[in-house]
Amino acid sequence: MNLLAWNCQGLGVALTARNLKQECFQKKPHLVFLMETKQKAGYVRKIRRRCGFEEEWVVNPVGRSGGLALWWSEVITVNILFSSPNIIHTSVMSATLSTPSYITFIYGPMDEEERRLCWQEVRKISDHIRTSWLCLGDFNEILSQD
Asked: Name one Pfam family in it (predicted).
């Protein structure tokens, strides 16, 4: 399964949408996760169609910041188990997977307290995982100053 995760920093910019479409047609991902779309669902849906995806889950931005989009192709089945402004937690099935795999898509908040709450949510999710699990996205965390 191919995944594409991108902090696009605003899907409303024509060059961004063009580059995304090009990446989707070249790389042929089964799943696309976009962070910081800064666009509401209607606009995101229009770009999704241009990129050749059938299915979606969109988290609208708050004001002019944030916004998440998850797109997937028909060859996989995605169930949304939890969604918030910073997290989309899913179970994913495909012909090549014998059991569901869990994927948690994360866009970590910039604010330290909000980030702490986001990680608490991820810990709660982890309590229920008993099989393969992938967390990906932009965590907005600094692991080292070196």
From this structure: Exo_endo_phos
